[in-house]
Amino acid sequence: MSRQTVEFSITAAERLNETLNAFLEIDREGALRRAEEIEKAGAGPLTGIPIAIKDNLCVKGMQASCGSKILGDYRPPYNATVIDRLVKAGAVVIGKTNCDEFAMGSSNENSAFGPVRNPWDTTRVSGGSSGGSAAAVAARIVPVALGSDTGGSVRQPASMCGVVGLKPTYGRNSRYGLVAFASSLDQVGVFAREVEDVARVLGVIAGRDPMDTTSADVPVPDYTAALTGDLKGARLGVPRALFGKGLDDDIKSSVENAINVYRDLGVEIVDVELPTADYAIAAYYIIATAEASSNLARFDGVRYGFRAEDAPELRQMYRKTREEGFGAEVKRRIMLGTYVLSAGYYDAYYRKAQQVRTLIKNDFLKAFERCDALITPTSPTPAFPIGEKADDPLAMYLGDVYTVTANLVGVPGISVPCGLSSERLPIGFQLLGPYWSEPMLLKLSHGYEQGRPFLERPPISAS
Ligand code: GLN
Question: Which residue among 238, 287, 298, 363 is the one 20 to 30 A from 64 at the CA level?
Answer without folding.
Answer: 287
